[in-house]
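Following up on my earlier thread - several people asked me to post the actual chain instead of describing it. Fair enough. Here it is, all 96 residues.
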Amino acid sequence: MKRQSPTKQVSVRLPARDHQRLVLEAERQGTTVAEVARQRIQLAEKQIELRDMISSLLSHITKNIFVITANVAGLNPDESEAARISIEKQLKRRLK
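Reply from S.P.:
Thanks for posting it. Predicted structure:
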């Protein structure tokens, strides 16, 4: 028999418009407002996780493109480092 994890109650104040959307969605799904709220929280957590994964992937791809471009251009290590610093200043972020 699967044992449920302990739960905690949370109360939040929502604008009437947001609450109404939760009520309508709960009615549409044939479930409770609390269940819809839980679904939305889980969805938001997944979106944050995906955003972080995409950001990490973008950083990895950017670094690899830079390395490939520097090699194709025939830059020596000092020139490559100078180019990296210049690009980071232009992009206003680090090439990890």
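Residues 16-91 form one domain. That should answer part of your original question.
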